[in-house]
Write a structure and sequence with these properties.
383 residues, alpha/beta, six-stranded parallel beta sheet, 28% helix, elongated
Length: 383
């Protein structure tokens, strides 16, 4: 976590002298209801930078807030300024800053412990943040790619939390942006084989065509379209103890993944080394545990609208699985993400399927909600 070392509630004179236009922002006022309106300009701190936002990606967590007001059932509509995947130009620096200058291209790392009124929003015309949380972006990285650096940073953190390395077998559940970016990072780390699962046919087709910039071949070895697990209603077998609906689903998940294990050549290890669950779906969690080999690592990445799920804990103990979680990223992930982009090891451009001006932010969010787009970028200066 990062925070300002010095705090002031007075806007510096050199910022006032810029005569900046209104800080037009994307404000969520109710479920699926957005207002494009000016909000107060964040105050530039002595060790901070003020940034004119150029590009802003829409994140999965943004969608949870847009569709239901929060994550995990915690709904709250209170003039929320949307967005956090920001990149832009520095327009002013604090009096203590020597690492940045106006005109620098930077990304914004939003793991900051400061009041919102001092930090400012990202889905607006300007935002402010500590200078050491604004990594520089090379000129060869486009603004659209820069607006997608944050999810790539999450991919780096996923690699850290799951201990991804060379010659591993990896299964990814969910072929949205995070799932595909994770696959790209795993490929860059020389994974032996990557397979993926997705319920949306269009995303299955997209994932099968997502190619490596270094080999020109698909990054994912096998992409499977998978149906929801039929819901059990509790039943008895052979006069034994009653099975719960979760038990019935678990048996189906095991049968399905046993077939996958043999089809993909994982029989010797009886599963894959790493499972990345990037959908937040209970069925995917069951499938993932069934597919993970003994002693493997299962990383829960995906978020859902509810807080609890049925989870096969007996299998977790029998297999001695390492179950891990993740929240976003750490600061070092951004330089690593920028490095992968700069070296051409990871290609984000194919994932960017649509762009909208800030004035059409609602259309942008609805486009993501439709499930027909992969990565949507909002161009904040195009009002």
């Amino acid at each position: 976590m990062a925070q300002y070392n010095q705090l002031t509630d007075t806007q510096p004179a050199h910022v006032m002298d810029l005569n900046l236009p209104p800080n037009t922002s994307c404000v969520l006022v109710n479920k699926r209801c957005i207002s494009i309106e000016p909000i107060p300009l964040p105050i530039l701190q002595p060790d901070g930078v003020l940034v004119r936002v150029i590009a802003n990606g829409i994140c999965g967590s943004d969608m949870h807030v847009y569709l239901s007001g929060g994550i995990g059932g915690r709904a709250s509509y209170n003039q929320i300024v949307m967005g956090h995947e920001a990149a832009g130009e520095v327009i002013a620096v604090g009096s203590c800053v020597t690492t940045h200058k106006p005109g620098d291209r930077v990304a914004g790392i939003y793991v900051i412990v400061v009041p919102q009124e001092l930090m400012g929003p990202s889905q607006g015309t300007f935002f402010a943040l500590p200078a050491d949380m604004a990594p520089h972006i090379p000129d060869l990285v486009s603004w659209e790619e820069a607006g997608s650096i944050q999810p790539l940073a999450i991919g780096i953190q996923i690699a850290k939390r799951a201990d991804l390395g060379a010659h591993q077998t990896i299964a990814i559940f969910g072929c949205g942006p995070i799932g595909l970016i994770t696959a790209a990072v795993a490929h860059a780390y020389s994974a032996a084989k990557i397979i993926a699962f997705e319920i949306n046919p269009s995303r299955v087709a997209f994932a099968r065509k997502y190619c490596s910039p270094t080999t020109g071949k698909p990054i994912i070895d096998h992409v499977f379209h998978i149906d929801p697990i039929p819901t059990g209603d509790g039943q008895k077998h052979d006069g034994s103890e009653e099975q719960t609906p979760g038990d019935v689903k678990w048996e189906i998940a095991k049968k399905r993944m046993t077939a996958i294990i043999h089809e993909c050549g994982f029989a010797a290890e009886q599963g894959v080394d790493r499972v990345i669950e990037a959908s937040g779906n209970e069925d995917a969690m069951m499938h993932g545990v069934a597919l993970c080999k003994k002693g493997g690592i299962f990383l829960q990445v995906g978020l859902g609208h509810i807080q609890t799920h049925t989870f096969p804990m007996l299998a977790v103990t029998n297999k001695e699985l390492d179950i891990r979680g993740i929240t976003r990223y750490t600061a070092s992930c951004f330089p690593s993400a920028i490095d992968l982009l700069s070296r051409g090891v990871v290609d984000l451009k194919p994932l960017i399927t649509s762009q909208f001006p800030l004035s059409r932010a609602k259309e942008a969010f609805e486009a993501v909600a439709s499930g027909k787009e992969m990565k949507v970028i909002i161009k904040n200066q195009e009002i």
